[in-house]
Automatic annotation (TrEMBL):
Reaction(s) catalysed (UniProt annotation): (7,8-dihydropterin-6-yl)methyl diphosphate + 4-aminobenzoate = 7,8-dihydropteroate + diphosphate
Residues in Pterin-binding domain copies: 19-305
Role description: Catalyzes the condensation of para-aminobenzoate (pABA) with 6-hydroxymethyl-7,8-dihydropterin diphosphate (DHPt-PP) to form 7,8-dihydropteroate (H2Pte), the immediate precursor of folate derivatives.
Gene this protein is translated from: folP
Protein name: Dihydropteroate synthase
InterPro entries in the record: DHP_synth-like, DHP_synth_dom, Pterin-binding_dom
Enzyme class: transferase
Amino acid sequence: MENLICKYKDKELVSGKETILCGIVNVTPDSFSDGGKWFGVDKAVEHAKDLIKNGATMLDIGGESTRPGSTYVEIEEEINRVVPVIKRLKEEVDVPISIDTWKADVAKAAIEAGVDFINDITGFLGDPKMAEVVGKSDVGAILMFNPKIARPNHKSSQNFPSFGGEGVFTEEELKSFEKMDITELMVKYLEKSIEYAEREGISKERIMLDPGIGFALTKKENLQLINDINVLKEMGYFTFLGVSRKRFITNILSENNIDSSGETEEGFENRDEASAVLTAIAAFRGVEVLRIHTTKHHRISQLIADSVRLNKIQEDLDLKPYSL
């Protein structure tokens, strides 16, 4: 397969190279894994710089938690959380920055502040104005498959807040989605997202696709979509994957009597080690961008996996024995 290009503003990313680690900066008091830790402009900027220093080459700024059980953040409040952070970072760092929001007004304010990508967890289907806002700009778009919108009555959807999207699919379509294979449903959903993008003049090269891991999916469905990640690449798009600290990972650990508690240092360490295994798998499979909470484990996993995947361009070096 030929290398893919993803364009944003006057720049571009090219696939077939080292995997991009996109560091998460949650400017929220209630994120599921680090709520409140980076809440406030100074703390958020300091954390972002630390992520870059240790290997992240992209940032994703979020002002609203979308975890199960989270509550809606008013548009003005979300803007007040993220815009000052974006402005500071655009002055002080030189990496692409995305804003994690599904609200068009927040996206518009972020674009005016200088953001490079809109990371929409509804894939343009939540807020009817989102595709238009992005279409009138030159930023890139990250479009996520959101099972909450595709299967609102599914048991796995009940713990998530509303992300809009009412009326996007007909009742007949929603009924057919209930028993559809999850990979097939992901493709159908993202085809609708792409349709919305094309309608607003957003070219294919400005889009990344995200399989929506952790959003209203069963454990088995999460694992299937990760295994089927190449489906997005076969559609001809950059892939953007976020699996760090997701609930199904902690479930796998706890079922095997491994501490995954968010209340203990060992539990958090185990979560990150397990997440980094998925980073290695994804990097080896050629996923272009990985959304991560920390660089400590993920950078090592990404480096080793990329070295294997990109073996043809590695230095043909005769290794010396270990010194005592």
